[in-house]
Amino acid sequence: MVIERRWAERQFERLPALATELVQLKVDLIVAAASLEIAAAKQATTTIPVVMLTPFDAVETGLVASLAHPGANVTGMTSMTLAFDPKRLELLKETVPGSARIAVLWCKAGPGSDFLVWTGRWTWEGLQVTARTLGVHLQRLEAGEPDDYEGAFAAAISARAEAMVVEQCYTNVLHQQRIVDLAATHRLPAIYSGRPWVRAGGLMSYGPRWRDVERRAATYVDKILKGAKPGDLPVEQPTKFDLVINLQTARALGITMPPALLMLADEVIR
């Protein structure tokens, strides 16, 4: 098996050309990581199978017709990340019950990332609904470059934010350790999207088991290369989710984790 790798280096406008390049190489299958990459691959070919890895809601964003019958040449996993944000906000509010102002750290959209702008707006609207229910005010912050993070945290502290939700998006993942360190420096309790953040020193995370998602995506590659049609393979959603808590970080922040959350946690770092 020969694997051709292409990476846009955060220059989203390059994705259509990279997808076209793979099509011209006559590859047998394309694995596309996230929504922008999948959309580019789908636009570049209607015949080469495309396996999705971690897109936002694949049906809502138009990447497939339905989960049961995706149709066309696209199938795979859909991360449903957007549905997790309200739950993360609820968990954070339970951890810091007196919080009235919560910051949300977003990735700044760049050239060619109109899709991210749209999905970000959708996520923000869902978070606002949950925030009103919980009685908290949200402060939206955006970062696109390494130097943006200092300013984003300074703005959060200036606005008296008492906690933070860190979005799962490319720039944030790229600067994971910087974000975790800044949260510690500013003594800001934060919730993240997955286990690696907590192992890096973050307070807590809630989200799919990404390794499990990646393994499930590999089974699609296997089936398709053995002759299955992608349009006939139902799209899967994550079935395993992890709540991970770092008690060392909680103690450093002066937070007593609610016993109910500790009982629900899949992993507690002591």
Describe it:
The chain is α/β, with parallel strands linked by helices and 270 residues long. The chain has two domains: 12-79 and 210-232, Rossmann fold (3-Layer(aba) Sandwich); 81-208 and 241-269, Rossmann fold, CATH 3.40.50.2300. 43% of the residues lie in helices and 16% in strands. It has eleven helices and ten strands. The chain has helices spanning 15-24, 35-44, 81-95, 114-134, 148-158, 170-174, 176-185, 195-199, 210-225, 247-253, 259-264; strands at 30-32, 50-52, 74-76, 101-107, 137-143, 163-166, 190-192, 204-208, 241-246, 267-269. The strands form two sheets. A seven-stranded mixed beta sheet has the order 5-4-6-7-8-9-10, sandwiched between helices. A three-stranded parallel beta sheet has the order 1-2-3. Helix 3 runs parallel beside helix 4 (114-134). The longest helix is centred in the middle third of the chain and has 21 residues, at 114-134. It starts with 14 loop residues before the first helix and ends with a strand. The mean pLDDT is 91.
